[in-house]
Amino acid sequence: MAPSKEVAALGSNEIVSISHDQTLKASKALLAHIKKAAKESAEDPSSKKNLLADAEDDVTADTPVWLTLTTKRHIADKSRLQPGKIVLPHPLHADDEDLSVCLITADPQRAYKNIVASDEFPADLRKRIGRVIDVTKLKAKYSQYEAQRKLFSEHDIFLGDERIINRLPKILGKTFYKTTTKRPVPVNLQAKVPKVNGKRGKRDKKTASGENNVNAGTPAQIAKEVNKAVGSALVSLSPSTNTAVRIGSASWTADQIADNVDAVATALVEKAPRRPPCPSG
C-alpha cells in the first residue's frame, strides 16, 4: 500500500484561528517595505541594475511573498518528495503569460499531446504547456545529468501524472529533488469514474494501470487539474520545525496576500502536530 500524501493531525482537534485584520495589516507593511527597498536600490548608483528593467515596479513584480509556519515539533516524520497542494483564493501565476509548464504523463504521450492540442482545451493554458512527455521517453532522453539540467532550466513548473509520480525521483534524481524548487507536482490525468446511484464507483486498478490503456480524462478535466496545480500553493514537508510556502508576489494587493495567508495558514495548522490532550482523572 502506497504511503498517504496527507499529514495526519495529532492530538486536540482545536484550531487556533488568526486575525484577518492583523494579517492584512502585516501584508500592507510588508509590501510597503518591499517597494521602499526596491526604490532605494533603483536609486543607488552603486547597485547593479538590469538595463531592461522599467523602474522599481519590475523588481517588485518578480519578488515572491512567502509564509513561514514554525512549530514546536517536526511537522512531518520524514521528507515528502511529492509537494502537497493548497488551493488559493488568488491563484499563483495567474497573470504570468511567459510561464512554461512541462507535463509528464503516463504512456503514451501522443494521447495527451492530442488532448492539449484539441479545440476543447483552453487556448491560454495550451500556450503555457511547453512540453508533454511520457515517463518512458523521459527516462530514455533525460537519464544523464547534463540533459536533466537542461530540462530543469527550460521550464518553470513540472507536473507529473499521479500514476507515475513515484517513478520520477529515480529518473530525475538530485537535479530535481535536491531542492524543492521544481519538484514535479502530482496531477490526476485519468478519466473520472462514473457515478452509480449518486456515488462515484471505485477505479479498477488493474485496468487503470495497464500499459496500453490510456484512460485519459477529457480536455476540460485535464485543463482543470493543470490549472489547479499551477495556481496552488505548494507545500514540501520535511522533518523540520519550519515550513515555507509561497503565497503571492509583491506586485499583488495587500488584500490578495492576506486572503492567501488565511487559506494557507488554515490548511497548515489543521495538519500540524499538536500536543496530545492530558489524561483526565
From TrEMBL:
Short name of one Pfam family: Ribosomal_L1
Region (Disordered): 196-217
InterPro entries named among the record's database cross-references: Ribosomal_uL1-like, Ribosomal_uL1/biogenesis, Ribosomal_uL1_3-a/b-sand
Taxonomy, superkingdom: Eukaryota
Signal peptide (residue range): none
Protein name as catalogued: Putative ribosome biogenesis protein C8F11.04
Naturally occurring in which organism (per UniProt): Beauveria bassiana D1-5
